[in-house]
Amino acid sequence: MDGVLIFLGIVVICFLVGVFSWRKRPKARDVLSVPVEPAALDTVLRLLLQNKKIMAIKELRVATGLGLAEAKSLAEAIQRGHRPPSAEGQHVPVEADQPHQGPPATTGTPDLAERARALRVVGRETEAIRLVCDETGMGILDSQKFVRAL
Fold first, then answer.
1. pTM to 2 decimals?
2. Which of 7, 18, 130, 150 is 20 to 30 A (C-alpha) from 42?
3. Which of 96, 92, 72 is nearest to 84 (CA)?
């Protein structure tokens, strides 16, 4: 009888520990509204541009406290062009820390393809991709394919 009581006590303790240690995770539809610090978002964007998706997911997990599946969903959404709200509650522009340093947009400037090609030729491919994202609204992958096709 004592063994049964001990066993039941252990089961109850394990159950209570599980209930109290379980943290509330956002549902899949709520993942897109999880705020991300601007510095972390910039790091995630850079990692995604370098095709380092796993590192980007790890960065999101550290920055937001999301689980693996939620961070993966958010990383894929960011890769498609979604911009989560910043931790301050405002949407973060694509050029979070660095405004693109491409040619100024005036009436006499070359078209987008020429400006992106010029940036890529001088080794500033990331800025070229950001320029295409900003001016067309394309996602990161589409912009990257566009720039690399030039």
1. 0.46
2. 150
3. 92
